[in-house]
Amino acid sequence: MKSAMEKTAREIAARVRENGHLAYFAGGCVRDIVRGETPKDFDIATDAKPDAVQRFFSRTYAVGAHFGVILVVENGFQFEVATFRSDDAYVDGRHPSAVHFSSPEEDAKRRDFTINGMFYDPVAEKVIDFVGGRADIEAKLIRAIGDPAQRFAEDRLRMLRAVRFATVLDYKIDNQTWAALVANAVSINEISAERIREELVRIFLSPNRTRGWDLLDSSGLMRAILPEIDAMKGCAQPEQFHPEGDVFEHTRLMLQFLPEKVSVPLVFAVLLHDVAKPRTATVDNTGRIRFNEHDCIGAEMTEEIMRRLRFSGAEIDATVEM
User: Fold this and answer.
1) For a surface tag, which of 18, 149, 187, 299 has the fewest beta carbons within 10 Å of its beta carbon?
2) Choice among 73-77, 96-100, 288-292 with the minimum mean pLDDT
3) What is this structure's pTM?
4) Residues 6+ apart with CB under 8 A from 45
5) Where are the alpha helices (DSSP H) in the chain?
């Protein structure tokens, strides 16, 4: 049975069609449809220009008219209706210097990963796939569209999105895409802390979070974003209390013990509960490793890290308290 949101999305596409234009579902909702999941939201792509889209509907907002994006409000739902476009060079690691309205094929080529680059025609009930997205869903593969290094240069956040999709969907990252990610991981901090935080939260709220931890670590993104966690590597602990190994291994193991559903403060308290151990490690005269005051210093470090990543005051307070 179709949800009220999907019915409304289909009505919007139908109205654009009645006015003589193409209208397809695009991006993540198509990925969900192909995977047999229920989409959480619907984006619509069209060859109608933004001003035309605004004429077809009574309630619209020009949220990104420069990029061809109009927000359409119908039946209490919001939908992004975007004109097919191709992009000029990206200047700031996020925005193209200019956009040109184009064809569905050109529009697919500028998107991030093949699994997000498909369209769905709601009238013909058929998937339109210029980029091999269906084959990659079948193969459980995250693959950049076109040249991965170029895709990551256009928007650095795509490196974290690759890790997030691989974590949440339990897919593998294609070799070329992975090589480009590893080569460019250090440049992740060129983008805003808010956007980085959002992706980290999605990765660590996923029940598959240890996979996310491993990908962040082996890609070099962990070292770039959370050097304090990377510093836990090789920080030895007393073997009689911690036979599992160093602080880094201990923290990874703690993530595995968490329930599937966690809050942001709980998962970040686990991630950072021993963050001060590398800083406080000493050996007493009996030869035992000590971490004096690592709880208090860890709380201060946690606040510092979470402020840097622009978490809310409430999330920071709850995490620091834990």
Assistant:
1) 18
2) 96-100
3) 0.92
4) 23, 24, 25, 26, 81, 82, 83, 84, 104, 107, 119
5) 4-18, 28-34, 50-56, 104-109, 133-138, 148-154, 157-169, 175-184, 193-205, 209-219, 221-225, 227-230, 247-257, 264-272, 277-280, 294-308, 313-321
